[in-house]
């Protein structure tokens, strides 16, 4: 039934956009209505189960709805009853905006993402647990992937309380929902590739002879130990990396630069972080493809936007908005040509798309929908010296990322 509805919306949409040259809005509306009505009529003829293959072959020809294009709609009923609340113990204190009394903590979850051509419904946790019995799901990446992992955990915990807490194959944290034997785990890794501090030691070394004294050695072809076994354990993987590649406070280009190694040897001449990122993405995606079992579903999540305004995180930047941004504000903040504070958002994505094009990873594109949500960060309620305009309040936006993840997972499973 959902497919039928999608099909309607799609047709109605393309018709009405196709007709924008027409001077009369009324006639567009009428046309859309007529078309919708006739499609309803047509499909009601196909309701008998024996005819459903006909419908499937029809639906295969259409391009699937693009979940990334849409808008946020204020809908006070949307999270009632809530998926979970501030008592979920996995919520990191700094992200628990309800407990820390952020003024708009309850407003954040009243916005619903409406893709232009379809709906993105809140996923049904009980149906999900049933469907993915005996399945292992691994989140591999930085704290933003943990933010998403916690949202999924809290949503599932609410409907299935019996859990075993453990750490499968190097995970930072993991849980099995015992009634369904479904395991979810978070593997912490900042760069995906292994890295550690590097000090000049060998006076004949190549980096030493170029004058390098200290920095971080990044092995572009070696996965971090925290997740190296994850591809053989999990049935579904969600990877991310991005924030740490644009973190000059840690990887200071002069005082503590990233020094890239391949096959155990330093790359000389040294390459810049954005070249290093391309190499890491290429090596890590092919590592996962080689190591994972056949049938493993691979996702790569796109970059999560930050919303620092009035300076970067360490320059007094803040995010005090109480409502999502308007489209033109999104462009001001994120357009590459403006080179503003949070410009890394779309830059990272350029690298990701380039690397993923020739891979078997599915892209989980959360960037654009999240760019609107300047209102959904912990901000001053994060309890830190600086405002947190990078992570997301829970409950909050990453709940919707999980809706998207699960909707896309269904598409993949239907195809295979
Ligand atoms: C979906 O829309 C976004 C934003 O317009 C675009 O960048 C992306 O390429 C589209 N994705 C697909 C699969 O067409
Ligand atoms: C939030 O408000 C409640 C009730 O007013 C109060 O008990 C609690 O200490 C506040 N929490 C924080 C972190 O300010
Ligand atoms: C639980 O699921 C895992 C696979 O994810 C499987 O290896 C194991 O046999 C399952 N356990 C039971 C009791 O079914
Ligand atoms: C963007 O701005 C930064 C400083 O904020 C500057 O260092 C960099 O060169 C700029 N990049 C471009 C492409 O203009």
Automatic annotation (TrEMBL):
Name of the protein in its database record: Trichome birefringence-like N-terminal domain-containing protein
InterPro entries: TBL, TBL_C, TBL_N
Trichome birefringence-like C-terminal domain sequence ranges: 120-407
Assigned keywords, A-Z: Membrane, Signal-anchor, Transmembrane, Transmembrane helix
A Gene Ontology cellular-component term: membrane
Subcellular location: Membrane
Main subcellular location: membrane
Species assigned in the record: Daucus carota subsp. sativus
Organism placement in taxonomy: Eukaryota, Viridiplantae, Streptophyta, Embryophyta, Tracheophyta
Keyword Iron-sulfur: no
